[in-house]
């Protein structure tokens, strides 16, 4: 795996984390227990921090980044990802906050200062603009995203199951290492 230090700060991994050897994880990044980072992910915690909760997965080709502090935004925009979050292939997350039990569909973009509450599905290819708040319990689709409908009971049950599927998969990969 490619863990890199930036300005003396190295990524911190909890137990049972899987990071593919082709991924780049650098700087001020903390990754929670049983989480996984898949091939060709670029996670750059250089000008702010990235925090990834437990049992979350960041799938192939995704980009995770942050925004630096400015006079307008003295704290900058860190990237905060909660527990049991599934981030689909080629997603871009930039200086936003994601709660728990979320599915971000393939190719979606979530921009600075956006807040995604718990139990949300963001459809593939969607764009969450800067500062947008997505309320808990809904499917959001489009560019820019719009609230499409409430999540079904089956979808709500699927969110932690999706995370569990990736915990099992990363355990298989760790066993082969």
UniProtKB/TrEMBL annotation:
InterPro entries: Hexapep (IPR001451), LbH_gamma_CA-like (IPR047324), Transf_Hexapept/Carb_Anhydrase (IPR050484), Trimer_LpxA-like_sf (IPR011004). It holds the Pfam family Hexapep_2. This is Gamma carbonic anhydrase family protein.
């Amino acid at each position: 795996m490619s863990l890199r230090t930036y300005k003396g700060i190295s990524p911190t991994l909890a137990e049972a984390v899987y990071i593919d050897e082709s991924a780049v994880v650098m700087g001020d990044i903390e990754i929670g227990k049983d989480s996984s980072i898949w091939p060709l992910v670029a996670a750059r915690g250089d000008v702010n921090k990235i925090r990834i909760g437990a049992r979350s997965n960041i799938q192939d080709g995704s980009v995770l980044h942050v925004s630096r502090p400015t006079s307008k935004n003295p704290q900058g925009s860190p990237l905060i990802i909660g527990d049991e979050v599934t981030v689909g292939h080629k997603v871009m997350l930039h200086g936003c906050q994601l709660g728990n039990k979320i599915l971000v569909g393939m190719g979606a973009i979530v921009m600075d200062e956006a807040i995604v509450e718990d139990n949300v599905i963001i459809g593939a290819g969607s764009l969450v603009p800067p500062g947008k708040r997505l309320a808990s319990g809904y499917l959001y689709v489009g560019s820019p995203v719009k609230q499409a409908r409430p999540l079904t009971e089956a979808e709500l049950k699927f969110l932690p199951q999706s995370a569990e599927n990736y915990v099992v998969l990363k355990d298989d990969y760790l066993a082969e290492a």
